[in-house]
Amino acid sequence: MPVDLALQVIRERLEGNKELHTRTCLAVEDIMDLLKFIVTTTYFSFRAVIYQQKFGAAMVSPVSPLLANLFMEWLEKQDIATAPVECKPKLWKWYVDDVLELIKRGQVRNLTDHINSIDPAGNIKFTYEEEEDKQILFLDTLLVRREDGSVKLLVYRKKTHTDQYLNFSSHHPLKHKPAVIRT
Question: Residue 136: in which H helix or E strand, if any?
Answer without folding.
Answer: strand 135-138
